[in-house]
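Possible regression after last week's pipeline update?

I re-ran a chain I had predicted before the update to compare outputs. Posting the input and the new output here so someone can diff against the archived version. Not blocking, just want to make sure nothing changed silently.
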Amino acid sequence: MVVDCPTDFNFFRRGGVYVFPLFLAPESGQVELLENLASGFRAYLDGRYEHHRTAEEVLGYCYAILRATDYHTRYAEFLRADFPRVPFHDSSEDFESLSILGWSLVQAHLLREFPRRGLAKYHGSSDHTVDAVRYAPGETAVWINSSQYFAPVPVDVWGFHIGGYQVIEKYLKARKGRKLSLDEINHVGAVADSLAFSIETMGEIDTAYRAAFPDQA
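New output (post-update):
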């Protein structure tokens, strides 16, 4: 995952998380942030591609690779035991296409930039208390009590998991017995739109990954 603020160490179901900052605080006398890339790795990148790739482009590329279905399938056993190892393609075009897709996914997961589709609009009249979270597939609706619900929430958006959690269900169940604020209600809609965009973008990443690494499909 990607975050833009300090994260709880129980962010994932198993507990514990490693954080890899993209930038570091400047040293004494410096103004700009320092990219958190090893000098040897930076030299490798600059030598491999015809022009300098920014830290953001590198993050986008890595994020795309780590979201590719074939990558997870091929290296599932190794990923359970060690840090992921990211293959870098010789082609600048393949690097760029994956980087752009990955960066758009980064922006969506930070809820910064992504298409708004009007998913998970809030309906019904009551006191906004989360009594029980229930998904109704036929209605593509997520009910939080007997008279209030979010819709439409497509099945694939409702079932989307991150870090072992079913995203929308986890968010709402964590607020059981509480009244949702307007910010929380709006947040559910933003997350639903972000997840729908993520599903589509991950499909594009799979296509780009297979084109770049056909021997790993």
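Follow-up from reviewer: compared with the archived run. Helices lie at 39-48, 55-66, 69-74, 76-79, 92-109, 155-158, 167-173, 182-212. Marking as no regression found.
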